[in-house]
Amino acid sequence: EFGVGKTTLAKSVYNQTAIDTHFHKKIWVCVSNTFEVDSILSQMLGSLKPEKTRDALLKSLLDELTGKRYLLILDDVWSDDREKWESLMSCLTYPEF
């Protein structure tokens, strides 16, 4: 079954020059069928430096993104698990370490 082109549209926006000038950082994460917060955080930092623990991931993420505008695209998300979404949002909003 094919989608309606959401990823194609998101890629088009993501690759626009205006996006590069507006955001300090751009992050693209392909989530797919397995929605795991640690995996998403790892992928978000994958190009910067690999870390092992959630605390290290959150500290690195906070160091990279604090005070900066950033665009985060979570592509191919299939999970509607509210607890996992809330966990991810709490990491991105109020990192605990």
UniProtKB/TrEMBL annotation:
GO terms for biological process: defense response. One of its GO terms (molecular function) is ADP binding. Transmembrane segments: none annotated. Residues 3-92 form the NB-ARC domain. The keyword Cytoplasm does not apply. Keywords: Plant defense. Pfam families: NB-ARC (PF00931). InterPro entries: NB-ARC, P-loop_NTPase. Signal peptide: none annotated. This is Putative NBS-LRR disease resistance protein.
